[in-house]
Amino acid sequence: MDKPPKSAYEIALEKLRAQDRARGEEGPAPLTEDQKRRIADARARCQARIAERDILHVDERAKVADDPEALQKLDEQHAAERRRFEAERDREIEAIRRGGGKGSGRSRRSGSS
């Protein structure tokens, strides 16, 4: 016995992969180095935008600290903006994954609202 026993998780994954092969389906293609770099860039850009908005949000909260309704509205807007940034990041990453190597055919404009 050279190999330790497989976990239930590993066995289940093997069965699913075998079923996929039997149906003629393939798993996701491995990412190229360029795709990995572009995905990392997209994640870093999103993280930076969120960090910038977090800093501004703290400042905006301080200005309306005495108004609970304004605070709630501000927090809701901040949460919505954060979700929008994350959704944009996820769409960009998916486009990179589908687009293959260099030049996915999509250009990014910074600062778009």
Polypeptide structure, described:
It is a single chain. The protein is mostly helical and 113 residues long. It has a domain of 66 residues. The protein is 69% helix and 0% strand. The chain is built from 3 helices and no strands. The longest helix is centred in the C-terminal third of the chain and has 32 residues. The C terminus is likely disordered.
Low-pLDDT stretches are 101-113
Q: Sheet bearing the most strands, described?
A: none
- The tally of strands reads 0
What is the overall silhouette? Answer: elongated
Gap from first CA to last CA: 60 Å
Helix content: 55-70%
Give the H and E element order.
Answer: HHH
Structural class: mainly alpha
Radius of gyration, taken over Cα atoms and rounded to an integer in Å: 22 Å
Kindly report the average pLDDT value. 85
Describe, in short, the structure shown.
The chain has about 110 residues and is an all-alpha fold. It contains three helices and no strands.
Tags for this entry?
113 residues, mainly alpha, elongated
Task: Break the fold down into its secondary structure elements and pairings.
Blueprint: H1 8-22, H2 33-63, H3 68-99
Helix pairs in contact: 2-3
